[in-house]
């Protein structure tokens, strides 16, 4: 039995589906209020038999603050894919991120100690990577630098990684993956699922960029790493490094919208001053922090060489990925009308 946490999220649901396609038995975590119909609907984007696969999932409600809940969920489990996490860059979500991402991971790994779990995959993020290699790229050796300013999200993912490395040092077979911005379908209003609505709703964008990767690639490489027993290592999972403006243009052109205007550094700095003065009055200004400005203004090259070499893997081009998932986004919007 394989246990997947965060199975209603944009990545967890696809890992579950890919495992089911391989004939695996899967137990999937959810919250009591999770929308399983939305998950089942999204499977229609990835397979011609969505109901057949969905009906094979063993869903369990899991409270990551409750060790008994976790112990029960792990009964009969020998592999864990830990995808559950809170993703946010808003200061108001700091406490929830620390509790979910750090304490939740710590509790899950503690519960694994008394179980039959042999393999554990931890989903982290490229947000924890800091130091550049001699090529000027971020790679698997780009360790987190605590002297630099980071978002609360990056700090929470770094500290949750530390929990996973601790378990690895104590004998658990652990692999860590660091995906870039995940492009997927469904869950349109949460975390990376908001990618298309963000580009649609905002007539402005930023000068920087990020590393992107299709959700199907993240799921397939994660499973490949577990199947090949590549433990005690981290693997960056990205397809390409793209500028926000280029992706905004692709999305907005397809939606029949004007090109987004790139906000200059000076405008962003004015926003940061406004946050200091009026952030208490206008909640959206709280997002204009030093670490967030740095993130949206920078464009770092992140290497995917290691995972491509280890698994002989070819990633879906980002343009093709955007087209596929944007089409699903458009069709879902039509259904709601």
Automatic annotation (TrEMBL):
Source organism, top-level taxon: Bacteria
Transmembrane regions: none
InterPro entries noted in UniProt: Epimerase_deHydtase, NAD(P)-bd_dom_sf, NAD(P)-dependent_oxidoreduct
Domain (NAD-dependent epimerase/dehydratase) ranges: 2-227
Cross-referenced SUPFAM superfamilies: NAD(P)-binding Rossmann-fold domains
A Pfam family reported for this protein in Swiss-Prot or TrEMBL: Epimerase
MF terms in GO: aldehyde dehydrogenase (NAD+) activity
One Gene Ontology CC term in the entry: cytoplasm
PANTHER family hit by this protein: NAD(P)-BINDING DOMAIN-CONTAINING PROTEIN-RELATED, PROTEIN YEEZ
Protein name listed in UniProt: Nucleoside-diphosphate-sugar epimerase
Organism: Chryseobacterium rhizoplanae
